[in-house]
Specification:
With 579 residues, the protein is an alpha/beta fold. The chain contains 18 helices and 24 strands. The longest helix is centred in the C-terminal third of the chain and has 78 residues, at 490-567.
């Protein structure tokens, strides 16, 4: 919903608020701030096949089933049995509601030529029949589809205006909530309907548009007018499916979603390490690269990891069928089929050209509502552009990402393109983490590389890794970067062998030198020991000589003393004395 509408609806107006009747249509009640004006007339205008009758029937059925408000269907175009049959495939059992007294169906086959022939038309019989039906079931809601079939017989717009005002006043007096359907006028007309009058006498006007561009149809809804109430004024995509009428009230989701600190594994341990521990819960990771680089395989790893944790997961395919993806992933050792069979994994696939851009968004919203996944993979979003990046495509992708983030869903989107491609750059500002896969060609072969271009809020690796698809999953290997550039594949294997040979040669050279030095050390140690022994012997000899010399002096003195004593000789004079 528009931010201005949210502000006005939540701020709280002074005085009584306008009473509203819930339509039971997902999204429409949010856009209108609570439903259609209660007790008043709402015009639903649109071309053939736009979904006017279905919106009105959805309003009637929801009132009877969910809100305890019986209704009346008055149709002027088709028999009652045909109307009931047309909507039975959408889950609306009108016959059952009639049997239980919750609905009255009134069908009139009006031939405008009869009115012209008679020259006049009296509404009184219709008023009487309608009043009786209201009283019969206590109706609170009415669908008039399409009363302008009658107005087409009047040639005078003044008569049409007069009769229409008369009808609206009559309905207002009964206090019932009415949906009036009307056909869109020609492209040159100024009014929303054929007569350009209905929108002026009704309190709420909703326009349904079913446009076709580039052979792709898109359905959109816009609330043109709502007296007494704030409402969303943008165009909103809507979807007609087996669940009925669904409106997606997303043009730009407010940037107020939570930012979790919890980490979620990608299923590839080394990639988790490169991302600082994995993806943040509720964040969006984009994987871009050329065809065949392994984008889908990486997304499958994330899904498989989520299912292993017991979380529900969703995979949206825009380029391959579910069976093809299941088969291809088995070649990597990833068998996703058990997760599909147990209901943990839902795979939905459709060609981008099968639906309009808005319908793709509406389908995604419906899948999220049904499956409530914790993890989702959108594979091949670049296919939505058919090779041409337009503001509409960028807007749709942004709204898809906002839708996932607002629900706290951890998502992976894959996009065909390289870093410099406009398509990838247009989306990069919306994602939290951007992984780039790239093919390189060398030595007659192609190899894959992976690197992290950005990862907000966390430290991450700036290294390039070789991205290898094996029969047991994805492996991230170190690459070799040198004078010859990045080496991967067989060049990496050759470089590894060369480095192993060089390491062996160096190891052998070191061993040889070690042995040589060891022998030299032993020889020098032996020589040193011999020199030490010789030194010790010479020192011993010196000591022996010194000792012998001392003994000799002592012996000489002793001998002299002995000889002197025998000769009775005086002692030798000392200090110059004479005898």
């Amino acid at each position: 919903m528009d931010s201005t509408v949210l502000t006005s609806l939540t701020a709280g107006a002074v005085g009584p608020s306008l009473e509203k009747a819930l339509t039971g249509i997902p999204g429409l009640d949010q856009i209108t701030g609570g439903g259609l004006p209660q007790g008043r007339v709402t015009l639903v205008a649109g071309g053939a096949g736009a979904g006017k009758t279905l919106l009105g029937l959805n309003f009637l059925v929801a009132g009877a089933r969910q809100y305890g408000e019986p209704g009346v269907l008055m149709t002027f175009e088709e028999p009652a049995a045909k109307v009931a049959l047309n909507v039975r495939s959408l889950g609306f059992d009108l016959d059952e509601l009639v049997r239980t007294g919750q609905l009255v169906v009134l069908a009139f086959q009006v031939d405008p030529s009869e009115i012209i022939a008679a020259g006049e038309f009296d509404f009184e019989p219709i008023f009487a029949i309608l009043d009786d039906a209201i009283r019969q079931v206590g109706a609170k809601r009415i669908l008039l589809d399409t009363i302008e079939v009658i107005f087409g017989a009047f040639g005078d717009d003044a008569i049409v205006r007069s009769e229409l005002i008369r009808l609206v006043r009559w309905l207002d007096d009964r206090g019932v909530t009415v949906v009036l359907t009307g056909e869109r006028g020609n492209s040159g007309d100024n009014g929303l309907t054929r007569h350009g009058i209905e929108e002026y006498v009704t309190d709420c006007v909703i326009v349904l548009d079913h446009r076709v561009s580039a052979e792709i149809s898109t359905r959109r809804l816009r609330v043109v007018k709502y007296r007494g109430s704030a409402h969303g004024t943008n165009e909103y995509p809507f979807l007609i499916s087996e669940r009925g009428f669904t409106v997606l009230p997303i043009t730009s989701v407010a940037l107020d979603y939570a930012a979790s600190e919890e980490r979620v594994s990608t299923g590839i341990a080394r990639l988790d390490h490169m991302l600082g521990g994995g993806m943040f819960r509720g964040s969006t990771l984009m994987v871009s690269g050329t065809a065949g680089t392994g984008k889908t395989s990486l997304g499958a790893h994330v899904l498989n990891s989520a299912c292993e944790r017991g979380e529900h997961a969703l995979m949206v395919l825009l380029e391959e069928s579910p069976e093809q993806v299941l088969r291809n992933m088995r070649s990597l050792g990833l068998d996703l089929r058990p997760w599909v069979e147990t209901g943990l994994l839902r795979i939905w696939a459709a060609r981008p050209s099968a639906f309009g851009l808005e319908t793709h968004l509406a389908i995604l919203a419906g899948l999220i509502e049904e499956e409530k996944p914790a993890v989702a993979v959108l594979d091949g979003i670049a296919s939505l552009s058919n090779g041409i990046v337009t503001p509409e495509v960028t807007s749709i992708v942004a709204r898809q990402i906002d839708l996932l983030k607002s629900r706290g869903i951890t998502s992976v989107i894959t996009a065909l393109g390289q870093e410099e491609d406009v398509s990838a750059v247009s989306v990069s500002a919306m994602v939290d983490t951007w992984l780039q896969l790239r093919n390189i060609e060398a030595n007659g072969e192609r190899n894959r590389l992976l690197f992290v271009l950005e990862s907000r809020g966390t430290a991450h690796s700036n290294q390039v890794r070789e991205f290898v698809l094996t029969d047991h999953g994805i492996e991230l290997l170190d690459v070799y970067i040198g004078a010859a550039g990045v080496l991967a594949g067989s060049a990496r294997v050759t470089q590894q062998a060369t480095e192993r040979d060089e390491e062996l040669r160096i190891a052998e050279e070191l061993a040889r030198r070690r042995r040589k030095l060891h022998r030299s050390v032993i020889e020098r140690e032996a020589h040193l020991a011999a020199v030490q022994d010789q030194l010790d012997a010479e020192r011993t000899e010196i000591n022996r000589i010194d000792l012998r010399e001392g003994h000799q002096v002592a012996d000489t003195e002793a001998d002299r003393s002995t000889m002197a004593a025998r000769r009775w000789a005086d002692a030798a004079p000392h200090n110059g004395e004479t005898r």
